[in-house]
UniProtKB/TrEMBL annotation:
Binding-site positions, ATP: G9, M10, S11, G12, A13, G14, K15, T16
SUPFAM superfamilies: P-loop containing nucleoside triphosphate hydrolases
NCBIfam families referenced in this protein's UniProt entry, alphabetically: PRK05416.1
Originating species: Oribacterium sinus F0268
Annotated GTP binding sites: D60, S61, R62, N63
Domain RapZ C-terminal residues, every copy: 166-286
Keyword terms, alphabetized: ATP-binding, GTP-binding, Nucleotide-binding
Domain RapZ-like N-terminal: 3-157
Lineage summary: Bacteria, Bacillati, Bacillota, Clostridia, Lachnospirales
Protein name, entry field: Uncharacterized protein
Pfam entry (one): RapZ-like_N
Length: 287
């Protein structure tokens, strides 16, 4: 029998999109399977010896009262039946979930006639045991659809080891204001500034000419090496503490040259050895 992936999480965090991607990757996807049928479904899979196809089961709070039975089923599958399965929990911040519901003009499944926030609060309580038991947690608060697809591909196709941490590397310019969700911030205004070179002013840190200018005196390389060492030390500690999202800010004056250059270099350096989710965003590069 192929691996079973139980896909669950907060409503609005991207479960439906996730199942579509998994289907593209060769999974047999079943959404909202009644929990009372899970053992029967398992027996069906076990009886089909030639069936090695991987299966994704979508489970969410729409299961209502049956959700309380799921914990026992999971323990039984894992401890007694030794079923090869993993739990993927999709999450997002309350603010992002509220925004998504407002944009879609849909009501939350646990607060049909009430406030969206009330439904989210109830759902977090009901789903807490699943999040605790999850083998994989993906926070989609800052993920584009293509980023989620790439992360899933690395997990289920390339079989990369994945730890429950999403690192977002964000470049920006101080002149346009500070992002509200930063966990760590590094000021890069000590590096050579391409803005003062007329030939580079209208280019960005994504281009080699600008990167060479920023790295010309050797200090940028020293800083990059130390930053890579720092994060290779810090990230396993954050994972051990249960942190699942970390936003790193790299800033210069305008967010177009130095911060973009360093963000690009750090992303490439960390991605080569990453066993966690990592994404790159240049907030002010077009300003």
């Amino acid at each position: 029998m192929g691996e079973i992936l139980i896909v669950t999480g907060m409503s609005g965090a991207g479960k439906t999109v996730c199942l579509k991607h998994l289907e593209d990757f060769g999974f047999n996807c079943i959404d909202n399977l009644p929990i009372g049928l899970m053992n029967s479904f398992l027996e069906l899979l076990l009886s089909s010896r030639e069936n090695e196809q991987r299966t994704a089961l979508g489970i969410d709070s729409r299961n209502g009262k049956e959700l309380s039975e799921l914990e026992k089923i999971i323990e039984n599958w894992r401890e007694e039946k030794k079923v090869p399965f993993r739990i993927l929990f999709l999450d997002a911040s309350d603010e992002v979930l509220i925004q998504r519901y407002k944009e879609s003009r849909r009501s939350h499944p646990l607060s049909k006639e009430g406030r969206i926030q009330d439904g989210i609060t109830k759902e977090r309580e009901k789903m807490a045991f699943l999040r605790k038991k999850a083998d994989l947690i993906i926070d989609t608060s800052r993920l584009l659809t293509k980023n989620l697809r790439q992360q899933l591909k690395e997990i289920v196709q390339e079989e990369k080891k994945y730890q429950n941490l999403q690192l977002s590397i964000l470049s920006f310019g101080f002149k346009y204001g500070m992002p509200e969700d930063l966990d760590l911030l590094f000021d890069l205004r000590f590096l050579p500034n391409p803005y003062y070179d007329p030939n580079l002013r209208n280019h960005t840190g994504e281009e080699k000419e600008v990167q060479d200018f920023v790295f010309q005196d050797g200090n940028a390389q020293i800083f990059l090496d130390k930053l890579v060492d720092l994060f290779q030390f810090l990230l396993p500690l954050y994972v051990a503490e249960g942190k699942n999202q970390l936003v790193l800010g790299l800033a210069c004056t305008g967010g177009k040259h130095r911060s973009v250059t360093m963000a690009e270099k750090l992303y490439q350096s960390l991605k080569e050895h990453a066993d966690y989710g990592i994404r790159l965003e240049h907030r002010d590069i077009k300003k």
